[in-house]
Amino acid sequence: MRKQSILALTSLVVLSLVACGGGDKGSGSATSSATGTTSTPSPSAPTATPSTDAITLALQTGDPRALTATDRDVLMQRALATATSLRSKQSQALSSMYSADITQLALDHSNSSISITATKTTIATPLIVSDSGTGMAAIAQVGTGRGLAYGANVLGMMAGTTTQQQHLPLFTRAFRWLMTGDGAGALPANFAVATAGYDVNSVKQFATRVGSTATASSCKIEDPSNTCWQTLDLMVFGGDTVNSAGLSALVRSYLEAGKAVMYMHTKGWQDSAGGRSVVNALGMSMGGYPGNYFASDTNLIKSVGSTRTREASLANGDQFGALATTLNLMSRNDVKLDLANDRSTLKAIDAIHNGLAAIQSSGGDVFADPDADLYRSLILWADQYRTGVVYGAPLAISGDSDQFLRTYASDSWLAFNRAATTVPPKGSGDYMPAAAAALPVAADFESIDVTIPQSSGITLIGRGAVPGKTVTVQIDDAAGVTSLGLQTSYLRVWGSPIDEAVYKRPRRPNSFGIPLSKQKDTVFVTPFGGPLMLSYSGATAGSVVKLRIKGGAKYAHYDFTRNPSQAEIAEASAALKRGDFGWQTNKLVGGEVQQTIGYAKSAMGTLSPEDYVVGRLKNMLFDSNHFANGYNNMPMSDRAQALCDGLGWTCTGPLHRAPGVQHFIGWIATCGFLCSGNPSDGFAGIGSGWGHAHELGHNTVQRVMHIAPNGKGCVVECDNNILASATMLRQAALLGEDTGHSLDHKGLYAYIVANRATNLAGEALRADMEVRLWQGPSQDPMRAVHFQMAFQYSKLRAALAQPTMESTLEFFQLLTKGDRLVARAWDANNKAKYGMGRFANNTIENEDLFYVLSSKIIGQDMRKHFAMYGIPLSQTALDSVADLALPIAPLTFYALAPGKHNQLATGQWTPIDAATPAYPF
Description:
Layout lengths: L3 H15 L18 E2 L12 H11 L7 H29 L9 E2 L7 E3 L5 E6 L5 E8 L2 E6 L3 H7 L7 H13 L9 E7 L3 H10 L3 E4 L17 E5 L8 H10 L3 E5 L8 H9 L2 E3 L16 E2 L5 H7 L4 H10 L13 H18 L11 H14 L14 H12 L28 E2 L3 E6 L5 E9 L5 E7 L5 E6 L25 E2 L6 E3 L5 E8 L6 E7 L5 E4 L6 H13 L4 E6 L2 E6 H8 L4 H20 L9 H10 L14 E5 L7 E2 L4 E3 L7 H11 L18 H17 L9 H12 L5 H13 L5 H17 L8 H20 L21 H13 L4 H6 L6 H8 L9 E4 L12 E4 L10
Parallel strand pairs: 6-10, 7-8, 7-9, 9-10, 22-23, 24-25, 25-27
Antiparallel strand pairs: 1-13, 2-12, 3-11, 4-5, 5-6, 14-21, 15-20, 16-19, 16-21, 17-18, 17-20, 23-24, 26-27, 28-29
Helix pairs in contact: 1-2, 1-3, 3-10, 3-12, 4-6, 7-8, 10-11, 11-13, 12-13, 16-19, 18-19, 19-22, 19-23, 20-21, 20-22, 22-23, 23-24, 24-26
C-alpha cells in the first residue's frame, strides 16, 4: 500500500522550499577555437544530496542527474498540487464572469476577426471558445495583475454601435473582473485609463454605459521609458499598437505590478505585430493573416450556439482538471485503462507537451520562467522516469497501463534548451541505438559553415546531437539571415505508440525548434539525439551562415554543397560502416537526405559508401533531375551553350538555381510506402530507382511538361514521371542499369496509325488524336511524346544519326531553361527570341509554350509534329513561330522496341510524312 500521508507531507515540504523555483542554467561562454573530442562534455552531475535539496537544485538548474527514484513521487505530488491550485484559481475567475444568467451565448465575431488562444496555460485561460473549438477571447492572471483579450473590437461595439450587443452581458462581467477581480464587483466611480493603438473614447463611452467614468490619460503606455503608468487603473491596447522589441516585456511588467491590461483587436482579419506582442505577454497567441476572412462557416470563429450552457463554457476553460486526473492515475500502480479507445488521459499529457513546445519554440526557458513551476516538476519527473524506459515489447498500449502511461508522459514532457537531461538506457528504438550515447563529441568549439539553400527552410548542419550530451551553439556570422533556429531531425511523421501494436520508440524523438540567439550562447540537449539541423528565414539563397558548435558529434554525413575533401568523405564513410549513430544524412544542391542507418545500409547493399552516396544519390538521383531541369549546378555542353548564345538566352546564373530543397526521409512514411511532399518520406532507404526519382520529379516539374489539352492528359503523376524517365535513361547509359517504368513508343506509334486510318484531315484528324492519346488510359505513350521531341532535337539540331542520352537530356535542359526564362525574364521588346513575337505577355498555355520553345530549340517549325500528336495550338502561337521563318520539320519517328526505351542505340528512324510503314519492332 502506498504511504500517501508521507508523500503528502514530503510534497508540502518541497512546495515550501521551491515554490519560486527557477534560475539561470549557467551556460557559460566559449573562448577556445581549437577542436578536439571527448566522451564527457556535459557538466558534472550535481553532488548527491538529501532528497529535498536535490529536488530544489534540479528545479533551479534543470539538471536532473542527481535525482533518484525516491524523488519521483515527490515531484509527481508537487505537480499535482500545483495543477490543482491553478485549476482552482482559473475556475474561480471564470465562474465569477459566467454568472447564472449567462447560459445561452449567441455570440458572433463574424469573419472580421482573428483568433485568440490561451497558449501559456499557467497564466492564460480561454474565456470564449467557439463551437468550432477556436479561441475568441481569453483572460490572464499574473500575481494580482489581470488581462483580457478579444479577437474583435468588442469594447468598441459595446460602446458606440448597435451591433454585436449579444456580447454585452458577458463582456460587462469580464470587464468588472478585469478591474476588480470579481465579475460581480462594483466598478470604481472613476478610473484612469490610457490607450495605445486604440480609441480612448470607446473606453469612456463604455464606462458611462456601465455606470462609471473613465478619465483619459495621455500616458504613452507603449513607450518603455514612460513612468506615468503607475497612476493608471487600466491600459487598453489595440491592433494599431506600434510594435517594438521590448513591448512584450513592458506589458508583462504592468501585469506584475498588479495593473489591468486589455487588448482589443481592431484590425478585423488583418494581422497586428504590436497586438501579437501584447497578447504574448498575456500568455496568448494570435491567429495569423488573414484572420478568419477566408475561414469556412464550420471553422470560422464566429459563434457560440444559443444552446451553450454555463457548465459547457466553464468546461472549455478548465485546463487542468484532466491533468489532475491523469497525475492521480500515474501515482498509482493498479491502473487498468482502455487507452486504445479512450484517449482522454493521454490528451492531458499532450496538452502539457504542446505547451512546452510553444514556450521553447518561442525562445522561452522553462527553468527560468516564473510561470512554469508546474512544467518544471513534470519535466524533472519525466527525466527521472526515463532512466528506466526500455522501448519494444512488452511495452504496448494493450499491455500494462501504468507502464504505458508513464512512458508516454516521460516522452512528452521535454526541455531541450538546457544543459543536461537523462537518456533511455537501451537506446531509442529504431530512432537511435544505445551505442550513440557513448560517441565522442567536440570538447572545444568548432567553426562550421552552413550553406543556406533558399530564402527559408531547414537544412542539415553536419553534426549530430548525442543523447544526453550538451551542445553549445554560437552564431559567428548570420549572413544577414533574419532568424535562425536549432533542432534535431526534419520529420513529418515519427510513428505513434497509440496506433502501433508495440511501443517501439519515443513518441516524439525529434526536438522542438529552439531559436538561436545572436547575443549569447544557445545550450541544447536531447534525450534521444539526432542530426542537428538549422531552421532559417529571411535568408539569401546561397549564403553561408557561420556557426561555432561545441559538443556536436561527427557521423555519416556528406555535404556536397561545399566540396568536401576526400578525408571528410572517408570519415563519413567510416561512420556509415560503423552504424553507431542512428542516422545517415546527405546535403546536396537542391536536396537533402535523412535516413536511418539501417535503411542506408540496406539501400547501399554491396556498394562502397562512396559509390552509394556519391555515385547513386548525388550523381544519379539529384544530378539527373537537375540536368533535365536545366539547373545551373549541371554544366552545359559546348553545343548547348552556343545555342543559348545564338538565341540570346541567359542560360546560366542565379535564375537557373535549383528553386528549392527536396528533403527525403527514409524511416516511416506518412502514407503508403513512399509519400510525396516535402519532406517526402518512406519505409525504405533512399536510392536512385524509379520511386525516389518520381518523388523528386513532383517537387521540381515545370509546366512545360504538364500537357493537358482541354484539361486532360499528362497531368500530375505523369508530368513528374517525364523527369523520372530521364533519370532512368541517364542511369541506364552511365551505369548499365535499365530499370523503371516504360516509355511506350510503340503504343504511341500505334495511336498514329489508328488516327490516320480514320481518313480524317486537318483539325478533325488532330482532334481525334487528342482523344486517343491525351484522354487515353495510359501515361506511357503520353510521356513518350516529350522524348520523341528530344529525339528530333538530336536529329535536326545536333545532326546525330541516332539520339543519345546526352542529346536527349540536353533538349530537356534547354526546354526547362526556356520555361524559366519566359516566366522570369520576359522581354516584351525582344520576345521573338523565345518564339513568342505575337503574344502580348508571357501568359501562354502550356501546349503553346511547349511548341514555341521546341521550335526555337530544334530550329525548325514543329507544327506538323504537334498536330500529329493531337496537341491543340493557338493561332497566336502558330503565327509567332511562322514569323521566325523556320523550315517546317518533316514528320519522322524514332522507333524503339518495347522494353528498349532506355537503349537508344537500338532504335531506328522511320519517315512518316508521306506514309505510315509498319513499326519495325
